[in-house]
Amino acid sequence: MWSWKNLTFILFWLIVGCNGENPPGGDDLSQISYEPRAYPLVVPRNLPPLPDVPDNPMTYDGVQLGRHLFYDPILSSDSSQSCASCHKPEFAFTDGLAFSRGVTGQFGNRSSMSLLNIAYLTKGYFWDGRSATLETQALEPVENPIELHEMWPNVIDKFRKHPSYPTMFRKAFGISSKSEITKELAAKAIAQFERILLTGGNSLYVRQLNKEIFFDGDQQEGMDMYFNTDLSLPDAQCGHCHAAPTFASSDYFNNGLDKAVTLDDFKDKGRGAVTGIPLDMGRFKAPGLFNWHLTAPYMHDGRFKTIEEVMDHYVNHVQSAPNLDPNVAKLVLTTRQKNKVIAFLKTLIDTSYLKNPDIFSPF
What we know:
Blueprint: H1 4-18, H2 60-71, H3 134-143, H4 152-161, H5 165-173, H6 183-194, H7 204-209, H8 217-227, E1 252-253, H9 271-275, E2 284-285, H10 307-316, H11 335-345
Antiparallel strand pairs: 1-2
């Protein structure tokens, strides 16, 4: 004889099924609703539209899935670390360390890069540009033995057995079964999330461009030196590599950190290790400067603790190399002028991105 308990259980799953949720067990996800809608992205003022990515359009469910994956330690071998372990919102999506520690306790050999405005980079990701797209970039940390130290087949198996992720993959990408969950779809979701990490529109710099405020004398002279717009002042040579409107570059530069008599002398080959081109040896990407105050220590190896040390390097300690960027070779600034450039750099602070709840952990 059927009991009320039996009937209640059946009615519950009938209702869940009608609402399009994932029934217990089995691989079929086709009964779950798939109604993709564009993510309501707001691009900060004075930044250009995001580069188009036709094979990975940003949807609300895709971004939310990526957000979950970004913060979930399920991606690591021991469930102790996530992408966010090295990319924290409060540090402009860096971690405040010269080198990050992975799940095995080992340290990497490069500083964690900021992810703010990373969507605008078009010539590769990581300091050396070894990944062509955000999607391929998102694949690497999982299997890096020093970082998350896991294997993608294991991660996919964890996704398929998870109580929520099969439904989220269905809603994000319209897959029909758990067997269609792949590392490529996971990477697409993470990339969608990373593309909403935008900043700059509420900075003093942008407010000044829009004539909402006026710079004081130090800020104005610092900007003139940064962009070399006043020929009565020395060129600080900043804008060549950290160019407006993102104050970053998709290109790679040797900024004189290490002396090299020949192009084979660089301990860290940088871009050259990727391309094999001799002139790329010792070259690294120029990161964005919005919210630089949150990203210390500076340079690819975190060797400088303060922005004052950075400025001192460019004025007094640039090292010679066959491929040294000519823009940093003969920089001459007084201490007062260096401080004025720093006064301008402080106008690039905009932490309003921290008001977007979608950038934080959902857990």
